[in-house]
Amino acid sequence: MEMRIGELAALATAICWTVTALAFETASRRVGSVAVNILRLVMALVLLSILGYLRRGMFLPLDASAHSWIWLMASGLVGFVIGDLFLFKAFTVIGSRMSMLVMTLVPPIAAFTGWLLMGETLSLLNLGGMMLTLSGIALVILHKHRASKTTLETIPLKGLLLALGGAAGQAVGLVLSKFGMGDFDPFAATQIRVIAGVAGFSIIISFFRRWLSVQKATSDHKALLLMLVGATFGPFLGVSMSLLAVQNTATGIASTIMAITPILIIPPTLIFFKQKVSWKELAGAVISVCGVALFFI
Questions:
Q1: Of 24, 31, 39, 260, which has the highest C-beta tally within 10 A?
Q2: What is the pLDDT of residues 236-246, one digit of tens each?
Q3: Per-residue pLDDT tens for 153-192?
Q4: Half-sphere exposure of 41 (CA within 13 A, CB side)
């Protein structure tokens, strides 16, 4: 089998985001999502700056072209700020399970946007792998959603539109990253995206006067530790791996593999939170893994 750097990086991203999801969920319950959003990016910026100095001799990616700065900054605003704002708001309206089901639209949106912006195409085998993977993910999430005894008729349209906005933000942000990055270093490219994210959230927090809640969050040492873990495996390693993935494979393929976090999160929730796993969830996991395997053929 030939080396699949992009696909392997996407798989590493999904693993990183599994750790991130568990860490940020717990931290958000303690101090709120607003504080977590800004503090995770600040922590990631510090880590990326240190890494940049050790690897490339500069704290900031000053060697990036104007093209890279413009498009990566746009990517950071669209992905980190707009996309996450829509998604976190959707969590409060329709819940995380239904929101994540809508988020399975990220790969097809990314594939379509990649085709429009960069002329990316997928083979029939790739399309089959995408459909199989997303079907397995949907089976897992829908099973949990139905277990909550909620019907589609009771789901607010506003919540679905918010989740769709979150999916579009993440997908378009990923494509803009690839377009702006080119052959540039993925970690340095991530740093530019994070700078844009910090700036965007700072403006929003200032507008809504939420700095006091952010300040209070800094006194919760357990939450800070969780945020540091989440920032390390999220904006620092996870996002950088996602850019390495799209740099070496089609955006639609990378985003599909990265979408299997709901599958990867099953084992830790079973082990650490003692949650029961149904045969439908296991079947969904097997289907998704088979779909991902098609990308490595």
A1: 260
A2: 999 999 999 99
A3: 566 888 889 989 989 999 999 999 999 999 999 999 999 9
A4: 25
Residue with tokens 């579009």: 168
Residue 161 CA to residue 155 CA, distance in Å, equals 11
Residue 1: predicted pLDDT: 42
- CA–CA separation, 295 vs 251, rounded Å? 13
